[in-house]
Amino acid sequence: MVTKKIVHSGLLLGILIIVFFIGTAAFAQNTPPSNDPFGLNNAVNGTGVIQGSDPVPLVIARAIQGVLSIVGVLFLILIIWGGAMWMTSGGNEQNIARAKKILTTATIGLVIIMTGYSVTYFIVESLSGQTQQNLPGGGGT
């Protein structure tokens, strides 16, 4: 039992070494030094996050807005999970109480996230002085 554990951890360590150290050496490129050594300027072109010379508070507000969007999706998943747990509880009071607790905390969290999202949206709009652009593939009109 112990030897199996040692063998499995050794194999995992070997695979990690191969993937992270040996495999990345083949992807190294010899590029001349520039103002953008990591290629971040090319990476953000067309994303709508940084446009030209946006002020730092605007970039930070947009990042916070993105994080709040992801957290909002997380809370939506929690609400669905709590509802499914309640529906499949089969009358078990313990599972119903657990599902109610999940739904209550997820709803409170969703209200907090929506409030934070609206505050950051207001900040982004007031700092940029214009409405946000619709990104390609983002839906809408």
How would you characterize the overall build of this protein?
The protein is mostly helical and 141 residues long. It has a domain at 46-132. The chain is 69% helix and 0% strand. The protein is built from four helices and no strands. The longest helix has 36 residues, at 93-128. The protein is flat, with a radius of gyration of 24 Å. The mean pLDDT is 74.
Short description:
By secondary structure, the protein is an all-alpha fold.
Mean pLDDT, as a whole number? 74
Which percent range fits the helix content? 55-70%
The radius of gyration computed from the alpha-carbon positions, rounded to a whole number of angstroms, is 24 Å
Distance between the amino and carboxyl termini: 61 Å
Number of helices: 4
